[in-house]
Amino acid sequence: MESQIHKIHQQLVRKEVTCVKLVQERLILLKSNTHATANSLLEEIALELAKKVDAKIDCGEKIGLLEGIPFGIKDVYMLQGTYTTASSNFLKRYRSPYTATAIQKLLDAGAIPLVKENCDSFGHGSSSENTIFGAVKNAINPDLVGGGSSGGSAVNVAKDLTVFSIGGDTGGSIRQPAGYNKVYGFKPTYGRISRFGLMAYASSTDCVGPIAKSIEDIRIVLNEISGKDIKDQTTYHSEKISKEAIDNVDEIKTVGYFKNFTETDAIDPQIKLDFYASIEKVKAKGMQVKALNFFEPDSLVSTYYTLAMAETASNLSRLDGTNYGNRIEGETLKDTYSITRSENFSEETKRRIVGGNQVLSQGFSDEIYLKGLNLRDQIAKNFENDFKEVDIIISPVTPNTPPQIGDSLKEPLAMYLSDAYTVGFSLGQLPTLTVPQGTQTGLQITAAKNNDELVFKFANFLKDIL
């Protein structure tokens, strides 16, 4: 699909549409949508900003490429003065005291926030059903889940309710819902975009990233929100990715894939068939394709959830109703803490907190948590070796198609295993893009650390052959 950002920019510049009308039309669609994607609308802010864009155009002033472009925000990002609920009962009345760095950069560029988007509570889930606002419905088939945890963000983009959305990816939470709803979703190299103002789930793998309908729109947004931030010491300076640079795929000679992902009974037969068909089309264009050995998917899931649960138990320990959130009084202070956390956290969040505290506890941390850290190092080393042999790795996004709404809540283990193909790249902190081609839930394209540009090059190549 063509760039929606460029298209709308030209419409605004030529005065074919006013920014106020553009924003009003999207807000009307968001209000009437039946896919449970919106936690709160930012109507007042959006219309005020839209009027300023129109005034600027009327005065003959030049506007930036993102100026006046409506976008959505996953409801785990701070935007000063607005509700930031994390789709949880705990924070349902919490107002942001400041704005996240990535969101502020978009505001500075003139982009217009429309909506705080539904997601799994605190990012805990792979279906966007673990939310107080109701399950997000798939954009293509509303009987199916929207994917998670950035389900509302992906569905809004797929349904043209937002031009792009800012999601959050810890173990696949941008890439998987993007695949489920046939849009693009990008997890950059860890540290490329500041996490300041993003509610932490697992700090060592949390990434800010865009969801959009075209590679070009992903590139534009990524360039705007990337960069070093003194408020996040994991960030680093990164060069902008130019449109011209990603049109040339000549430097990509060898493509790898993990046969462990496909030589298993856990994968849907049609996804497997389509994936191998995509491999053959890549070969037909003269590229060498190499099968690689990797950790078994179950080992990746176990390692990821061991570390993610430990980190979320630590991160959510601050929520006890004293400084943040919905406090429920008990007879004693201890009762107050216990009741507040028991009543406000969802079942899935409590499951992850209990699991995290277990693996961090005395007698278990050496046997489980430290082993998980060691495995993460081995996974990262494995990737380093793989990228000495291949330029790009492609893989299915998910082993199966989107489940029916309700199924994931009945089988938490099945939900965890749905992340089998995404969590490894999170543990490796690698740039990975979901593209809506190749299989029913898309393909993932991954490059070595800090090689985000290479991912876009190959995505452009695939777009033309699949």
Give a quick rundown of the structure.
With 466 residues, the protein is an alpha/beta fold. It has helices spanning 4-13, 19-32, 43-58, 101-108, 151-158, 175-180, 215-225, 259-262, 269-284, 297-315, 333-344, 347-360, 365-389, 407-410, 412-417, 423-427, 452-465; strands at residues 38-41, 70-74, 112-117, 164-169, 184-187, 207-212, 254-258, 288-292, 392-396, 432-435, 443-446.
Q: What features would you describe in this structure?
A:
It is a single chain. It is globular and about 65 Å long. The mean pLDDT is 96. The longest helix is centred in the last third of the chain and has 25 residues, at 365-389. β10 and β11 form a beta hairpin. It is an alpha/beta fold and 466 residues long. The protein contains 17 helices and 11 strands.
List the helices and strands and how they pair.
Elements: H1 4-13, H2 19-32, E1 38-41, H3 43-58, E2 70-74, H4 101-108, E3 112-117, H5 151-158, E4 164-169, H6 175-180, E5 184-187, E6 207-212, H7 215-225, E7 254-258, H8 259-262, H9 269-284, E8 288-292, H10 297-315, H11 333-344, H12 347-360, H13 365-389, E9 392-396, H14 407-410, H15 412-417, H16 423-427, E10 432-435, E11 443-446, H17 452-465
Parallel strand pairs: 2-3, 2-4, 7-8, 7-9
Antiparallel strand pairs: 1-3, 4-6, 5-6, 5-10, 9-11, 10-11
Helix pairs in contact: 2-3, 10-12, 10-13
